[in-house]
Amino acid sequence: MEKMLISGGNGFLGSHLAERAIMEGLKVTVLDDFSTSNRVNVPTEVTIIKERVEDISIQDHFEYIVHLAARPSPEDYILNPVETLMSNSIGTMKLLELAKRGSSRFVYTSSSEVYGNATMIPTPETYYGYVSSWGIRSCYDEGKRYSEALTMAYHRKFGLDTRIQRPFNVYGPRIRPDGLYGRVVPRFIQQALNGENITIHGDGKQTRSFLYVDDWVDATWRMITMDDLDGNILNIGSPDEITILELANLIVKKTNSPSKIVHVEKREDDPVRRSADITKAKNLLRWKPETNLDRGLQETIEWVRRDAM
Ligand code: UDP
Predict the structure, then answer these.
(1) pLDDT tens, position by position, 167-216
(2) At 308, is the pLDDT very low, low, confident or very high (cuts 50, 70, 90)?
C-alpha cells in the first residue's frame, strides 16, 4: 500500500485531499498541530500526528509528501507572523529532508500570494511577482516564495521529484467562517445567514477568482500522481474574476438575506486584482474547473447552514 504524508492535513484543503487519498487506496498520515483547524476533519482511517511541521520527528518512508501546513487567512497570519514563517521555511526544509531520505515525491502547496499585487492579469506562472519583503503580508508571501526556492533547490541539487502548485482562493465546505480565520466567502455567507452587516473592505472593487474545492482536489490529485511533472510549477485556480462587491451581492441574493452591505477600512497591502492564467495546468494536467461560482456557493452555503452555525 502506498503511503502519503500530508502536512496541515486536518485543515480545509488537507482534509479533502486526505479523503481522496483514502478513497484511492493510500495509507494516509496527517501531520497537523491543530493551531487553525479546531476539530478533527479527517476520516478515521487516517493516522494523525499532532505536531508542528517544523518540529517533525517521524522518520517513516512515504511515497508522497504533500506540504500544506500554513496559516492562510490574512487577518490571522498578520497576528502570527513568526509561526507563519516557521512552517513555510524550517517546516518546508524538514519535509524536504524527509522526502530526500526516502526518495519521496514532494508536492509543495504554494499560493497565488507569491504574485503579490500582480500587474499582469490573468497571471501566468512566469510572472515574477510584485511583493513587499517587509510589509504585513510578507510573513506569508515570503515564506511561500522561500519554500518555492528551497523546493527547486532540492529538485536541482538532489534530483528530488518535486511539484509546486499555486492555488487561487479555494473555497467550499469545511473552510472556516469564524473570527480571524474567516476568508471572504465563508465570512460573507455567515454574515448573510445571521442577518449581520456584510463587511466590505474599502470600495469592494478589488477582485478575486474563486476555485471550488472539488476542482482543487481533482487538479492536486493529478499533480501528485501524473508522471513527468517533476520540477513544474502550476497555477491551480480560475481565470473568472469577480469584484468583492459583486460577491457580496451574489451571496445576499442566494441566501435571501436582509443583511446590509457596509464598507469598512481597506486592508493594508490588499492585492487589487487576482486571476489565474491556467493555460499550463490545462495543458499538462488535462484539467479545468468544472464547478461554477453559483453552484460552488450553493454547496458552501448549505454546508455553513448545516455545520458551521
Ligand atoms: N474581504 C472583505 N471583507 C471581509 C473579508 C475579506 O472585503 O470581511 C476582502 C479582502 O479585503 C480581500 C478579499 O476579500 O480583498 C479576499 O480576502 P480573503 O481574506 O479571503 O483572502 P485573500 O484573497 O486576500 O488572501
Answers:
(1) 999 999 999 999 999 999 999 999 999 999 999 999 999 999 999 999 99
(2) confident
Whether 53 contacts 95, CB under 8 Å: yes
Any idea which residue has 442566494 for its cell?
Answer: 254
Report the separation in Å between the CA atom of 101 and the middle of ligand 1, taken as the mean of its atom positions. Answer: 39
User: In the predicted model, what is the mean pLDDT of the chain?
Assistant: 97
Residue nearest to atom 11 of ligand 1 (CA): 201
Specify whether the CB–CB gap between 208 and 274 falls below 8 A: yes
Positive or negative: CA dihedral 199, 205, 208, 212: positive
Nearest CA, atom 8, ligand 1: 199
pLDDT one-digit tens code per residue, 14-57: 999 999 999 999 999 999 999 998 789 999 999 999 999 999 99
**172 dihedral zone (left: phi>0; alpha: psi -120 to 50; beta):** left
Q: 49 - beta bridge partners?
A: 31
Q: Compute the distance between CA of residue 7 and CA of residue 162 in angstroms, rounded to an integer.
A: 15
CB count in 10 Å sphere of residue 133: 9
Q: What is the pLDDT of residue 2?
A: 98
Set out the domains of the chain in order of their start, with CATH numbers: 3-308 (3.40.50.720)
Determine if ligand 1 sits within 6 Å of the CB of residue 71.
no
Q: At 255, which helix (H) or strand (E)?
A: helix 244-255
User: End-to-end alpha-carbon separation of the chain, Å?
Assistant: 39
Measured from the CA of 191, which atom of ligand 1 is nearest?
A: 8
Ligand 1 site, residue 117, Cβ cutoff 6 A: no
Residue 30 sits at φ, ψ, to 5 deg, of: -110, 130
The residue contributing the CA closest to ligand 1 atom 17 is: 184
C-alpha cell recorded at residue 178: 469564524
